[in-house]
Amino acid sequence: MDNLRIGDKEIRNRLFIGSGKFADEGIIQDLMTETGVEVVTVALRRVDLQNRQQNVLRHIPPEAILMPNTSGARTAEEAVRIARLARASGCGNWIKIEVISDNKYLLPDNNETIKATEVLAAEGFVVLPYMHPDLYAAKALEKAGAAAIMPLGAPIGTNRGLKTKEIVRILIEECSLPIIVDAGIGKPSEAAEAMEMGAAAVLVNTAIATAGDPLIMAKAFSQAVQAGRLAYLAQPGQTVEYARASSPLTGFLQD
Amino acid sequence: MSFYPLLKSYDGLDVNDYMRKVTSQRVASIIRKERLQALDFLALLSPAATEFLEEMAQKAHRLTLQHFGRTIQLYTPLYLSNQCVNRCLYCNFSHINKEIQRRRLSPEEIEAEAKAIASTGLKQVLLLTGDVPGKEPLEYLVQALDIIKESFTSLSVEINALSTEEYTLLTKHGVDGLTIYQEVYDEKTYESLHPAGPKRDYRWRLDAPERGCQAAMRRVNVGALLGLHHWPSEVFFTGLHAQYLQDRYLDTEISVSIPRIKSGPEGYQPTAPVSDRDLVQIILAFRLFMPRLGITLSTRESAALRDNLVPLGVTRLSSGVNTAVGGHIDEEAKDGQFIISDERSTEEIRQMLLQKGYQPVFQDWHNI
Q1: Going from the N-terminus, what domains does chain A have, and what CATH number goes with each?
Q2: To the nearest whole angstrom, how far is the Cα of B105 from the nearest Cα of chain A?
Q3: Which domains, ranges and CATH numbers included, belong to chain B?
Q4: CA B34 – CA A83 distance, rounded (Å)
Q5: B interface residues, A as partner, C-beta within 8 Å
Q6: Does the ipTM surpass 0.90?
Q7: CA atoms within a 13 Å half-sphere pointing along the CA-CB vector of A244
Q8: Tens of pLDDT along A13-59?
């Protein structure tokens, strides 16, 4: 069994999905059923906690792992308050920290994210911080008590792919926590690439939600993530610069 | 800091002459660009760009989908008062308009109006008053906010221009959004349309959105009343203003409204009409210029037009609108600020969006 363990949860499917941009939130349930996706992130700011019948949570299957996120928060303080609100409202103790005060590119604020992680981890949350890939910040998040680290592949919603590949590779090599590539992944092949590199999981929203057929795209992503993971586990052969001749020109030197 | 010097730096620009010289090839190349400069935006408002509306629409749709998904925010205005000291020639609330009955909601009426709106499911509301500056009207507004905030998760205001300290006071009482139109960016036209009242101060109003950003408003919405002056230049300066704010106040969501002014008191008629085709071109140019810009469309536009504009770049729609003070609790209430064209209820707008493959968003923030 090659399950991913985060907090007290065992996760079989390493594709995590976002729920923010779907035309009809009702598709989330179908999508999870059809692909086996288990982890879904929900923006708590859009959840009407007083009206459970009319919010996105009614579309999340009860067996799913709910990862409320703090999108909309611009400071650590706001993120902490949203996280506490999520837990008090029965959304569990997982929290994806999103602290973004840049409305032009939606880039996360690592400093505020570290502060929020520190507070919430101390309060017993399973904290999954979304971050701008940076080794020092990742190490600070580890120290602050994060349960995983979620670097962006490219700015949110851009579908530009794994633009931060080299730094994400360094985080995978240097961090002891699972690295979950979040944001920017636009195509299943890019998700597979992240997984081949050793990412523990990928989180995708825009690429699925805005696809012509979100359901089929989700299946493609799920399979790509699985393929990438298998390739990583299989330990790919070394890449070399020149072809290895089957009839070496210097073979005559053998005794 | 002020947008004014940037605005003045364009004094030598002859907008009409510039637009006349824009070629089809230039427009085609701008549409292919990833990042547009200010004059590219102006070129997209030119007659040459009208040949490219479909190409612009395709790109605008893709960009909107990418950044906002298939979602549309819903809100409604709540009119607290139509008392006003200004004399804006185009506005029914102008203090010289003796045709309308002046009214200011009592605390009980405010609560009832808020509950009536909240019962439709709306969670985001825009509070409006006429322009009555001073301590007492501000205290009235604060009292109203304290009543209303129980019913909604987001409160915006569209009121007279305030100081940074006054905006900060409002944020402490739950306000997270500010809408303030410049009405008209052309300074001479502004003076002629505002012959009396504190609103005559062009620069106080021009810098108000920036003061809102400094007061930590989460959302600031700017705009020009289309029809008061040559629309391409008005839209151009609105875009520059939005970009100026977005570049300097990263933590504030900047959006624009594109209201087309209608007839006003004493037979006032807009002098620079904007056609449906012009309006489409305006929305598309805004989206290509600023891909993450919020674009708000009011019920001044007809239901059919609003439905068709949804996929082109609009991110926020008003619904269930009544522009009369007390209009949601008093069937006799009349004398709205303007005549609305889309009279559909919030539920009807919700259904329309679902049928078009869009998710109506009633709430986008928790009042924390």
Answers
A1: 4-251 (3.20.20.70)
A2: 28
A3: 3-361 (3.20.20.70)
A4: 36
A5: 65-71, 121, 123, 153, 218, 246-247, 250-254, 292, 354, 357-359, 361-366, 368
A6: no
A7: 3
A8: 999 998 888 777 788 888 888 898 999 998 898 888 777 666 778 78
